Amino acid sequence: MAKRDYYEVLGLARGASADEIKKSFRNRARQLHPDNKESGDEAAFKELAEAYEVLSDEQKKSSYDRYGHEGVKGSTRDFDNVDFSSFQGFGMEDIIDALFGGGMRGGFSGGGGGSRSGPRQGAHLRYDLDLEFLDSVFGLEKKITVKRLEDCTTCEGSGAAPGSNLSTCNTCQGQGQVKQLVNMLFMQSYQIIACPDCAGSGKKIEKPCKDCKGAGQTRKSREFEVKVPAGVKDGDRLKLQGAGDKGPRGGAFGDLFVVLNVKDHPEFVRDGFTIHVKQTISFSMAALGAEILVPTVEGAKVLKVPAGTQSSSQLVMRDLGVPHLNNPSRRGDHVVHVVVETPTKLSGEERKLLEQLAEIRHEKLKVSAPVPDKSDATGEKGEKGEKESSSTDHKADNKNSQSGSNSKKKKSHEKDPEPAEAEDKGIFDKIVDVFRPKE
User: Does domain 1-117 sit in CATH 3.40.50.80?
Assistant: First the structure.
């Protein structure tokens, strides 16, 4: 699979400055960090690290700008063989320092200054510590057991069985490093790599130690005391310097990072240094005021509820929250969220008293539905109907007088038209007509 353009990996255009390259790398590295649960991607992080290694080095960057990937072939670290899982839980500064800073940290190999045959610092370790909610508030001291690499006591870290000899590696002459010829597009170059015969130690083991299999180190359980300060929160990390793995060939110990996992509390909710709690009170307590016992991180405390307190009110108890980290004399507040409880079942006496209270406060517990006024509903329309009927009758008289004898010629079986007022009756009157007894 062809490699992507290094500038594309960093999200930059060609000609980007050193500051732009550094800034873009740090921003993207935080997103792709293997310990980032939301967007962590180890493969993409390795690709990003390789791109930054080239573009942050002026000489490699110049060669890459002229010849592309062929121009830096063989001059970059093999990040595919780097185990980033050993750095999960560590900050970006730790990883950047390990990859591109001075010396080898965290067990990374290849590149960087110093001889492979010399001492190297051991790997950092991570330990997850579960804490109860109250322990995170007030702090505690706790002993933990960690398995870490230490020099083998049988061979004293040499990797050779007792009585066997160590000889200088003929391939690297004890340097632990060899030069390797690298063919690039238009040129040849040398790079320094670990000696393949002695794995960079500079020594050849005649007979490996049985206990460590020639590695010179074994993993042992060690107990450490962790001091958790007051005010820590979920996800905080504590650093125990020198409690990590022992470095090979006499190297220094790495560090141990203790990651805190704080459990939820059944009643308390933490927001920064403030603690929130829900407290139920009765209607009479809310109306008259009262003194109640409220749970806090220091046990039950007395809280005065003012008369007339409404449901969802917040009452603050000062300086009963979480201590400020590294300054336990300062503390947050304890906020009580009041909920006025409405009784669902009442005794006869309770109901009678509440009814008396409602009567005193002129509160109606029942209301009657309004009854429609028939005169209002039909009076106006009836009056209007009468006027319209009168007008219609007058017009009809005029028409009859003009027609004269024509009206006498009507057949006897033809009926006179219904009065106009029947058409204008209200709906109530029509219903009455329907159900009126027939004569």
Answer: no
